[in-house]
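Record 1 of the preview.
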Amino acid sequence: MTGLLEVDLSKLETSVTDWKSVVDKLEALATRAERGLQAKADGARWAGVNSDVTREFVRKTAKEFRDAHAEADSIYKVLNDAHAELVAVQRKLKTALEKEAPALGVKVDDYGSQDDGPVIHVFFPHDRTTDDTHTEEELGKAHNLAARIANLVAHAQEIDSSVARALAKSHGGDAHDFGHETYTSLDDAEQQRATELAKLGTRMSDHQFAELNAIMKWNATDPNFSTAFYKSLGSPEKTLEFYGRMALDGTEGDNKERLELTKQLQRNMGTALATATDADNSSHLPPSWGEQFRRLGTKSIELYRGGINPPYGYQILGGLLRYGNYDPRFIDPIAEHIVQLHHKNPDFFMGTKPMAGGADTNWGFNPSGKDGAGYDPLTSVLEGLGHSPEAAKKFFSDDMVPTVYNEDGTVKKGATLDYTYFDELTKSDFEWPPDSLAAPGSDAVAHARDGGPDALGHALEAATLGHSYDDPTPTLKRDDTSAAIMAKVVEAYGDPERIQDPMADSLGRMGAGYIDDLNWALNDNRTDSLYYPTASSGHAQFGESSAIKFLSAVGQHPDGYSEISTAQQVYGTTALEAQVHDGHIDQPHAREIVRTGAQVQGIIDQSRADQVKAEGLAKDEEYNKSLQKNAGWIQFGAGVGIAAGAAFLPPVAAAGVAGTLIPVFTDAGKGAIGQQIANVIGDGAETMQHDSASSIHEQTSEIYRAGQGAAASPMESFMRNHGIHHDDDGFGQNLEEALRTGYGLGTDGASQRGVLPDA
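->
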């Protein structure tokens, strides 16, 4: 770290300039040798042995000038690229160390490098006045800073290593001979090295494997590198053979180091494949690659000679599709084919799973171990759509005109489907494959079918919210198409039988992303509603009945409940503040905001209480844990992001929950609104349950008490900020009455028009 920070890159810049001068001079010399010396030798009327020797000597001499030029040009281009990249990395490192670290109040130590990369320690100096206690926000920021610094140092090390290799190969081992390896850029040198390592396959040592991952990590989003790398593998089938062998080799046994390297390869190759198959990039693979992948999808790929039950192409490809933002033109036809295969035979791919397994599910073609072992390509491709918002939106849109495929991946001309992909995947009796290699009787077997619903939730998140479901810095991107898909989500998942626990958090985040339209729906989508959208696109009309059913159904699941509750508090806070104009408060609108917000909370509270009655106190413990995770947002204080018409509640480092985007009624005064949101969440958290009671009756009473506190938190904050008192004869009491009325409407609406628990 210190070396990168202090190195004088101006010296490298001088070398680049010098080499450019050498290139220009050698170009002139080579041209003169070819047009002068060699041309004259070739045209001379020589005869005899001496003429043959002399002419060949002249030709070799002229070639050496051209080879010298090529070598110098290669060195110049590599050094020039390296200088540009190192300057950018150094600039980012200086910003992190000289601005961000002091602002956070931390110091940074460099412990050098180990096998898995640089070791950076970011810590808070001892401070007796604070007793060395720090918030989750501060600890999370320190952790993120350390990770970013380590990545910058690792990137610089990879650049340095690549340059050293390229220069050595350009120069060669013979001091009296030019004409060795030449490169058009640093990327070209890195791609060639990556190809050399990939050809070793499973014979790569851990050190070589780490080198391959390092090169690919920093170049996977570069179209030239990614396209050249995949072309160098030979073909789609050779690609599947390479990754398939690496995945099985890396997940076999208990070698944790090799497994971690294989997880990195999965992510890097997936990201690179998404880059290389994006037809909008200047450099990309031809469309035939997608067609060949489809044809290989149901073909057995022999990874090892004589292997029993070789995997199908889609099972191997699925491991790569899980990472990267894919072009719809590439991934959607593959997703269509896989869903059609599943519709015809849900167990089509399950016959190739190994018979023996252990408790560890990190096997197969999904080394990450997330959402299955990788033998079910349906889960894999849905996870891929979860990282590909445009592709997911197109796939689930009513505008999608399906292409029907034969089993071998060729187009079935003239054929049509009698179902949509959304309806097929969201039906209550959909049969998810048991994608697990866990030993019979283990806990993992009970959750073998959880990966599918979880991945479906991720795909729907991307389709409705416009960003990858796990994007650390997302932007809410809603349009008419995504809103129409959300309308279908609200309608479909108003049926609790369709909701499986693994996807409840996704439904909660989708509800949070459309909390404005859910509020409008509770006003029965009236055009005179204060929630009537001013934007011409990106809004859905759910209808009051559908909104109540959806909120009621999602509220039966702890993660969904906590997402909706928090989102309503945030939205209500910004909506109330928007009613203040030049010191004047629009009182009727303020009352309606309090009433509607309380109604939302009442609906999900009644749903939660009904679920606890159906499943017992153990269920309520799950609610409390989920609320405690989301309450970690309090620690972010004014750090709550307000941008592009949405509030971003970032992931809580300690809890690991996903970030959530929530539309705001107004983003005026972003800093003040951010702080107020944090305060409101804090107020709600103070009223939150901490322990389950000893009886169902006591527990449901506690649910209502805590829920009313959460519903009241935006109102209480608003009243404090604007000097409104509870004992006022007018406005203060009107707000309290709106709160009580709304909460009662919510609990009654859930009881009368909601849905019963799916216990």
